Task: structure prediction
Amino acid sequence: MKKAYKTEVLLTAAQQQKANQTIGVCRYVYNLYLETAQKQYKETKKHLSGFDFSKWLNNVHTKQNDQWMKDVSSKAVKQAIMSGDRAFKNFFKGIAKFPRFKKRKNEDVKAYFPKNNATDLTVERHRIKIPTFGWVRLKEFGYIPTDATIINCTLSKKADRYFISVLCDVEKSEKAYESESEGIGVDLGMKEFAVCSNQLIFENVNKQERIIKLEKRLKRQQRKLSRSIEQNKNRQRGEFCAKNRQKQLLVVQQLHARLANMRKEYIRFVASVLVKTKPAFIAIEDLNVTGMMKNRHLSRAIASQNFKQFREFLIAKCLEIGIEIRLVDRWFPSSKCCSSCGEKNVGLSLADRIFTCGNCGLEMDRDFNASLNLKYTKAYTVVTE
Ligand SMILES: [Zn+2]
Result:
């Protein structure tokens, strides 16, 4: 079983410079590949493979003047090209959008390091050895297992902090799992993040005051940033010092990162509480998040709830321990059926918070009713096997 560990690293000044350079070269090469491949496709109608581009880059391009590109890990550069190659192939297959150029401010380029030598990526309690970097200090001691077989690692930067993600091959421990309670149905929603059939209710994290306050601050700082960009719009390049703008950009990036971390932490908390009740199974809806996002009045609110991430995380956690996850069919009318007699209440609108059954007279919170339906339905697929 493969497992990834992501944690922050503490780089020295020289290592920081090296990390910035490696990530920068990867981004440059990725963009150069996209540009060259596009050009070739227009001329010859043939896809430029990553291997051919890599050969051309090594033999023709870098010989001329780009020595700075050779100062960083060649494996990382190669990986950047191959991920561009994959982006094109996914586009041709129709499963992804047309690849776009990577921008520096998006901070979405990672440097990739495979394990080549036996001493590469050795992990100790407080440090890890990365090719071309040497020993790098970890911020969290003992998080990455020292005895695991490491396959590769990626280094990334977010809001002026550096992170390492280590992919390990861990043996799946055959823990005997004994459920202590019956299965639970989990209804995900906008008002409450999750309502469970065992009376647990998890509030929407975006309605907590700490998040609302932070969002307000982010809005203010974003305004400040855009004002400074607006003011400096008409100046020539190099005419002014952009230092303050860089500082402001960092403030905005840090707020974004903090919000994202808080939300991610919350879904992990929910998943771990659910798992700790030791249910026989967990039934969740197969939400059509992409479809829901098309509603532009709701898309922001839905995106900030991280439903997709929650499901992925819950499945991963349950796979590890051995809890069955039941993915209930997308079209199953979980909120419109009566959980005690099965009668369908077609007239129920989103505004009705209380579900009332015309047949048996049941009155109950609509989300709780939905979670009971999810628990007892037979229209599901098991995703953890
Ligand atoms: Zn009923």
